From TrEMBL:
It comes from Xanthobacter dioxanivorans. Belongs to the GlnD family. This is Bifunctional uridylyltransferase/uridylyl-removing enzyme. The lineage of its organism: Bacteria, Pseudomonadati, Pseudomonadota, Alphaproteobacteria, Hyphomicrobiales. Residues 1-382 are annotated as: Uridylyltransferase. Uridylyltransferase (UTase) activity is inhibited by glutamine, while glutamine activates uridylyl-removing (UR) activity. Residues 501-622 form the HD domain. It comes from the Bacteria. InterPro entries: ACT-like_dom_sf (IPR045865), ACT_dom (IPR002912), HD/PDEase_dom (IPR003607), HD_domain (IPR006674), NT_sf (IPR043519), PII_UdlTrfase/GS_AdlTrfase (IPR013546), UTase/UR (IPR010043). One of its GO terms (biological process) is regulation of nitrogen utilization. Pfam families: ACT (PF01842), GlnD_UR_UTase (PF08335), HD (PF01966). GO terms for molecular function: [protein-PII] uridylyltransferase activity; phosphoric diester hydrolase activity. SUPFAM superfamilies: ACT-like, Nucleotidyltransferase, Nucleotidyltransferase substrate binding subunit/domain, Poly A polymerase C-terminal region-like. It catalyses: [protein-PII]-uridylyl-L-tyrosine + H2O = [protein-PII]-L-tyrosine + UMP + H(+); [protein-PII]-L-tyrosine + UTP = [protein-PII]-uridylyl-L-tyrosine + diphosphate.
Length: 934
């Protein structure tokens, strides 16, 4: 259970840091060092440093004790106030005293920006304004400079400006950033009448009558910020300050409210009828939680870190008091709370937007992503087919406050109407739906009409993802499907999934809709198959449910199938359709696993997969679902390589399922692929192409995509023209975030191990690998390594160093074991993955298949392949895949005589040796030797 509580009345901080005792001490120091300016400044800096250290330590202690994030931020702001007023006391009273100041020798110091709100994180910048009545004077310049030197000596990051009142007003009119900064200005010390004059004139001369332009500017600024940081609020490594649903969104809300409604606190928005009392309390709870997270994060990392990266999430969860529950780690429960708060911030944004539209301070948005089919002349138009809903500024709204109470099915129907008529939903309707959630009870969930409407929403040919997302934001989706409600805002603590579970499921629906519309050729075979399936609805339902059992102690695929068998009859699906959906949910990972980690040219692989899918229709459905599932994981996860693997698996399995008959048999597909290759290499002679084609075995032509085949051909040709036997080639793939390294060398058993070791020694992390052998004894290996630099020229230079390392290792110029011992990083690992090793003789007719999964790390592939070599095993083929932090490497091996490994003792030795790789070998001792000795 989280220790974060709704804030109560707290003292801001202990008395010494409220400035009372500190001010007295500073005066004593000033008196003691009078006339010795350098000594005075040094003594003051020493005392203020101590105050900052003690104040931060006390603030952290109190934060851990009471869990009040807002209180911590206010305590730190009060501490900063005391430091700045002390610096002013030294500068104005002791260093540059003026007995009889003129009108121009006056100054006010104000906190602006985030500091002006009176709340700061431990690593926040200190933004201050030196406010002057007229132009700068020698005295004002001296005081400001003396204060800044003290603050800089304290190590504070100070943002400062020196302006007259007139300059502040002029610049505020021209620059919205400065206008926002002054909007939040707070008096600290100095001539208070000067600050009050700025406040009065700013309100009269800048703010009055400019609400609409300020709102437009702030909303545009927010959109640009979210575009840079990632539009989704459900990114699994969110930015607490600048991410969607973070503190900056709350600040933007308050800036707008303060500017438009001329209020100073959120509670005043209740009196203005913008927020209800509960919504105002929600604002405070969200703010308190986010400040608590941000302050803890700064204290934990010791720097102004605002990104909740994986390596701090677990520590943050423990600091905040979260505990594990069955099926969910403490860190996953913490992050779920975080995402629910981010969702609440989004709801508050929608509420304020609706209120601003009512005041005409914010333009009514267009129907983004939808067809605008109505252009109403008047504001409210009643729909012909129902009296419960109306058109309100071209958006669907309820006719009155009782629309959902009269008929609770309207909570589903309103989204159905929005989908059918391509209408956006009015924020008022979304608010009312959120407040009416208790109306969705067991009777509504079992209502035939409600379920019919829901199924039509899910399987719509318009924009099902958009409408389902609105249902989820309003809470209707999770209430109507409580099983879905359990995965709302649920994150999985791994590097593979980029989004929360509910966000992933909704994106899957969006990808499936894209596949059906055939607008993206990258979807590969799925585009071709979509139009041939007998029942498209089953795909949409299965994708909505495939991860719905995440977060449970048992296998989510098996539990999900059980949920599907319960829900599908409710949706109106027949027993046969229900069983198909349940099967798709239970087997939704199988095709991806087989395609990426098995030898698709091995007959046994295809026979085993065929026994799972059983018929062609199921394989079509599974291919489409697998494509959508992988693509919706996150940017760069889906690529042409994976598309080609799925295509190959599908067409290799098709003849088995059809009794030997295939729409496109294997031989014809190989011939077609070779013909496509010949056509693309039009600058080569027919004889040259024929010679090259003969160098590759048939599986190569089916497994590798055309662009890679062409790259391979030109690379091999250039290498031979140069008279070289070993060569490498690097290519950037920015969309996937990887760099592809192609290696050509004489084939031998330890080749993959040497390549992997050289890459690791050069600091490259291998995330994928495909291995091909030519008919004339060459190995053509394609290694995907994780990109390290954003700039292409930097990454190409790095790739050059990796190429050089690989070539030196292959020619024997360097000894890998010594290099690896020096290069591999040591230290705490963020993730833990229990290693597993499977040795199986039924997955292949000719080879023993060794499947290894565990925590990925630099040099892992080298360690595994080197261990297999030391065990006198010959690696016939290897299939390397990385799913975030989990590596899944599959090796097809034989003994040195070419036979399978059948002895139980030998198999146990292999398992122990490979497990020992993950545990880490003793110093100067190989994993294989340790395992053999054990």
């Amino acid at each position: 259970m989280s220790t974060i509580r709704t804030p109560r009345a707290h003292r801001v901080i202990g008395e010494p840091f409220e400035g009372l005792m500190l001010k007295a001490e500073i005066r004593e120091i000033g008196a003691a060092h009078k006339g010795r300016d350098i000594d005075l400044r040094n003594a003051v800096v020493l005392r203020l440093k101590k105050a900052l250290q003690e104040g931060h330590a006390e603030a952290e202690r109190l934060l851990k004790e009471d869990g009040c994030g807002r209180c911590c931020a206010m305590r730190l702001s009060a501490l900063q106030d005391a430091v700045i007023t002390s610096a002013h006391e030294v500068a104005a009273t002791f260093l540059y005293p003026v007995d009889n100041p003129s009108r121009s020798e006056r100054m006010a110091v104000a906190a602006v920006g985030g500091y002006g709100r009176g709340m700061m994180a431990p690593g926040s910048d200190t933004d201050i304004l030196f406010l002057l009545p007229y132009k700068q004077t020698a005295w004002g310049e001296s005081v400001a400079e003396a204060m800044l030197y003290i603050l800089w000596d304290l190590g504070l990051k100070v943002g400062h400006a020196t302006r007259s009142v007139e300059e502040c007003l002029r610049q505020a009119r021209a620059d919205f950033t400065i206008r926002t900064s002054i909007l939040e200005a707070r008096y600290l010390v100095g001539e208070k009448a000067l600050f009050e004059d700025l406040e009065k004139r700013f309100d009269k001369e800048v703010v009055e009558g400019t609400g609409a332009e300020f709102v437009a500017a702030k909303m545009a600024e927010r959109e640009e910020r979210l575009r840079r940081s990632g539009q989704s609020r459900y990114l699994v490594e969110p930015n607490v300050k600048d991410g969607k649903g973070g503190l900056r969104d709350l600040h933007t809300l308050f800036w707008i409210a303060k500017y438009v409604y001329r209020v100073q606190t959120t509670s005043q928005l209740v009196a203005k009828a913008v927020f209800t009392r509960e919504e105002a309390r929600l604002f405070t709870r969200c703010e308190d939680f986010l400040w608590s997270v941000r302050c803890h994060l700064h204290f934990l990392t010791g720097r102004p870190e605002d990104r909740l990266s994986f390596d701090v999430q677990r520590d943050m969860a423990q600091r905040l008091g979260y505990t594990e529950h069955p099926g969910q780690k403490d860190v996953e429960r913490f992050m779920k709370h975080y995402f629910l708060v981010a969702k609440d911030v989004g709801d508050l944004t929608a509420i304020l937007s609706a209120a601003l539209e009512e005041r005409h301070e914010k333009p009514v948005p267009g129907l983004k992503g939808m067809v605008e089919r109505f252009r109403a002349g008047s504001r409210r138009i009643t729909l012909k087919e129902t009296t419960d809903f109306i058109l309100d500024h071209d958006r669907l709204n309820v006719a009155d406050e009782d629309a959902f109470r009269r008929d609770p099915v309207n909570l589903i129907r309103i989204f159905h109407v929005a989908d059918k008529r391509n209408l956006a939903l009015h924020p008022d309707a979304m608010q009312l739906a959120a407040r009416s959630l208790p109306l969705i009870d067991a009777a509504v969930r079992e209502n035939a009409e409600a379920n019919r409407l829901f199924l039509e929403i899910v399987t719509s040919k318009n924009a099902p993802e958009t409408v389902l997302r609105r249902m989820n934001e309003a809470g209707v989706l999770g209430r109507f499907l409580p099983e879905f409600g359990k995965v709302v805002a649920m994150m999985q603590f791994n590097m593979y999934h980029h989004y929360t579970v509910d966000e992933h499921l909704l994106r899957c629906i969006g990808v499936l809709s894209e596949i059906e519309r055939k607008v993206n050729p990258e979807n590969g075979l799925a585009n071709d198959l979509m139009g041939t399936v007998k029942n498209r609805n089953l795909l949409y339902v299965a994708l909505l449910l495939h991860d719905i059992a995440k977060g449970r102690p048992e296998d989510h695929s098996v539990a999900g199938a059980r949920i599907a068998r319960r829900l599908c009859p409710r949706f109106g699906l027949s027993p046969v359709e229900t069983e198909t959906v349940a099967w798709l949910v239970e087997q939704h990972l199988v095709m991806s696993q087989v395609a990426q980690s098995r030898d698709l040219s091995d007959r046994k692989t295809i026979e085993n997969f065929a026994s799972v899918v059983q018929n062609l229709e199921r394989m079509k459905l599974l291919t489409i679902i697998t494509t959508a599932d992988i693509k919706a994981v996150g940017p760069g996860t889906w690529n042409g390589w994976k598309a080609q693997l799925l295509r190959t698996l599908y067409y290799e399995t098709e003849p088995v399922l059809t009794g030997g008959f295939s729409e496109v048999d294997r031989g014809k597909r190989v011939t077609a692929a070779q013909g496509q290759f010949r056509h693309a290499l039009s600058d080569w002679t027919d004889e040259k192409v024929a010679t090259y084609v003969a160098r590759h075995y048939p599986p190569y032509w089916l497994r590798v995509d055309l662009d890679t085949k062409l790259r391979h051909a030109r690379f091999v040709d250039a290498t031979e023209q140069a008279g070289r036997s070993i060569a490498t080639h690097a290519a950037l793939e920015p969309g996937r975030g990887i760099t592809t390294l192609t290696v050509l060398a004489p084939d031998h058993p330890k080749l993959l191990s040497i390549i992997a070791g050289a890459c690791a020694a050069a600091g490259a992390n291998i995330v994928d690998a495909h291995i091909s052998t030519t008919t004339d004894g060459l190995a053509l290996d394609t290694i995907a390594i994780r990109r390290a630099f954003d700039r292409d020229d930097d990454e190409l230079r790095r790739a050059g160093r990796i190429q050089e390392a690989v070539e030196q290792a292959l020619t024997g110029e360097v000894r890998l074991p010594e290099v690896m011992a020096r290069k591999l990083p040591k230290g705490r690992r963020t993730f833990t993955v229990e290693p597993e090793v499977t040795v199986n003789n039924s997955w292949s007719n000719r080879h023993t298949v060794v499947e290894v999964s565990g925590l990925d790390r630099p040099g892992l592939l080298f360690a595994l392949t080197n261990t297999l070599s030391r065990l006198n095993l010959n690696i016939a083929s290897a299939h390397v895949a990385t799913f975030g932090e989990r590596a899944v490497d599959v090796f097809y091996v034989t003994d040195l005589m070419g036979a399978k490994i059948t002895g139980a003792a030998r198999q146990s030795t292999i398992r122990r040796a490979l497990i020992a790789v993950f545990e880490g070998p003793a110093e100067d001792e190989e994993p294989a030797r340790r395992a053999a000795r054990a």
